[in-house]
Amino acid sequence: MSPGADGKARRFVVPASLARAPLDRSLRTLLGDASWGQVRRLIQTGKVALDGVRVLEPTLPVRQDQVLEIVHAAPRPDRQLLPNDVILFADTHVVVANKPSGISTVPFEPSERDTFDQLVARLLSRRESSRRGPLGIVHRLDKETSGVLVFARTLAAKRELKNQFRFHTVKRRYVAIAHGSLESCTLSSRLVEDRGDGMRGSTDNPTLGRAATTHVRALEGLRGATLVECRLETGRTHQIRIHLAEAGHPVVGERVYVRDHRGPLIRAPRVMLHAAELGFEHPATRRPMHFESAPPEDLGELLRELRR
């Protein structure tokens, strides 16, 4: 039976086994008969509360003994709004913004709403008197990845920024928590969309895929993990996640690229990857632009726990 089939409210107490697990995974486990799509739809339409407070974020970590309740009669929430400080810089050519985790950069399906580009455009419309078209997509961050990214506001700016990404002149620095003890290194391979088992990954065939290089610097040894800094020489889809996983050190919170991992996995509410720094040349003025974003609280909380 689907979670909404009988229309009744359902209540659960979060057990110790689900402490710090993402809300969507916890709810799916507790329901036992719901799909990922059903669970996320319940959360995003405002039907789920933790300790009486409605929660709209599927990847929010839950705590032991919290009361998790599904209230089918709850009204849909107002359209989501971002805080003003999400926008780090905006002019008539570009917008630089700090993306939270749990929000897609752009829609993957025509029906997807409240993606980050849409939310930033909505915030800009409240701040500015003149109306503008949709934001131009220059690069993306995975849904669970937080951090800084840039949008274009004109076709000329989009074209120029894409060229900077194509010729690898954009400075991108990420921080991540990786499983195990990892030393500084450079990871290079050719990435393909399907390595033969339906997953993205590396190939030894020099005629296939696209070259990818990730420079990794170990910052701090942790309990069962390493805090690392990753600088991208190229920017392929899931590049950091794939390279670290194939090196035997998947990002903590990884649920896709862990199939070959043989060691214990540290529980985390999401993939612990954050885009901490972005540098580029302004597409119109040619002025160097540089932005940094501090890791969010969920990453910081896990760091503190792994330092004990």
What does this structure look like?
The chain is an alpha+beta fold. It has 6 helices and 15 strands. The protein has helices at residues 23-31, 36-44, 116-127, 155-166, 239-246, 297-306, and strands spanning 10-13, 48-50, 53-54, 67-70, 87-90, 94-99, 136-137, 146-152, 171-179, 185-192, 201-203, 210-222, 225-232, 273-281, 288-292. Strands 5, 6, 7, 8, 9, 10, 11, 12, 13, 14 and 15 form an 11-stranded mixed β-sheet that branches. Strand 10 and strand 11 (201-203) form a beta hairpin. The relative contact order is 0.13. The model has no long low-confidence stretch (mean pLDDT 90).
**What's the domain count?**
2
CATH topology call of the largest domain: Pseudouridine synthase
Spans of at least 5 consecutive residues with low confidence: none
> Ends: how far apart?
43 Å
- Output the CATH homologous superfamily of the largest domain: Pseudouridine synthase
Mean pLDDT: 90
Strand segment tally: 15
Whole-angstrom Rg: 20 Å
Sheet with the most strands, sense and barrel status: 11 strands, mixed
Any guess at the CATH architecture of the largest domain?
2-Layer Sandwich
Number of helices: 6
Which percent bin holds the helix content? 10-25%
Element-by-element helix/strand order: EHHEEEEEHEEHEEEEEHEEH
Any idea of the CATH class of the largest domain? Alpha Beta
What structural category do the secondary elements indicate? alpha+beta
Q: Based on CA inertia axes, which overall geometry fits?
A: globular
Portion in beta strands: 25-35%
Characterize the quaternary organization of these chains: single chain
